[in-house]
Amino acid sequence: MVNQATIKLIDTFTSKIPLVRICKYLNISRSTYYYHKTHAAHFNLSQIEQEIQQLCIKTKFLYGYRKIYALINKHLKCSVSKVQRIMAKYNWWCRIKRKRSHRPGNPFKQFDNIINRDWNISLPNRKLTTDITYIPCGNKMLYLSTIMDSFNSEIIAHKISNHPNTQLALDTLNQLGYLSGAIIHSDQGSTYT
User: Fold this and answer.
1) What is the pLDDT of residues 139-173, one digit of tens each?
2) Please, what is the angle between helix 45-58 and helix 65-72, to 10°?
3) Based on the domain organization, do 38 and 55 belong to the same domain?
4) What would the pLDDT profile of 38-74 be if each residue is shown by its tens digit?
5) Whether 168 and 132 share a structural domain
6) Bridge partner residues of 157 (DSSP)
7) Number of structural domains, the chain?
8) What's the CA angle centered on 170, arms 169 and 176, to 5 degrees?
């Protein structure tokens, strides 16, 4: 491939030396010279390289050559392989964003399992269990918080909300009032802890 420096060199010497002789010395045909001269914008790699560099910096090197090609091809015509070669030449490969795995442990308070799978009870309102159920409703979700008495598996409090937050759990608990000696069991999710 003839670069633009060669074309400029030929242009400077054509006033003194015939074009046929210059092409013969450089071992290129005249048609190749004329082709590269008329299609100089097509072979201007520096412009494509600058565009690729700007896109890589703008996207913080998170895009690969296919995505960069898709962005560059909107206003500057080039091939996928050319973008890939240029990115390889300057080592502008996409850099993988490392996932953070910092987990310091459970930030909420954990409670001991007092019930320990012993649901047998002879009096009502002593061992209670609670959970939130997700209910699909059209194109959105509703959340049902319930409290069940393990004495007779009766739902003694319930509340429906648009969000599975702590307020939903508190509203369900407030329906019970004060129960002396009752144990409430949950899955210790963030909503309850």
Assistant:
1) 899 999 999 988 888 899 999 999 888 898 889 88
2) 110
3) no
4) 776 555 557 788 888 888 889 888 899 999 999 998 8
5) yes
6) 147
7) 3
8) 100
